Amino acid sequence: MFLIINGQRFVGSSIPPYKRFDEIKVSTLILVGEHDIPDVHACSGLFNACISGSHREVIPGCGHLIALEQPALFNEQVLEFLGK
User: Which residues lie closer than 8 Å to 67 by C-beta, 6 or more apart?
Assistant: First the structure.
């Protein structure tokens, strides 16, 4: 599999992305809205379980658009995470 952007060819990996979570070596914040659909909650739980050292936070009172629906809580979580 490959992708061409502005004439440059980018070759993808033959390993599916979900099998490469162990390659993520940076701090990872996973935010999910309380009222988001069950599939998003399931995926965010999987990401949290598979990415070593990740942190998952459920933001109350919002759905999928956390930054628009709860901007103060979104900013608080992101700034706290970046401060660590």
Answer: 74
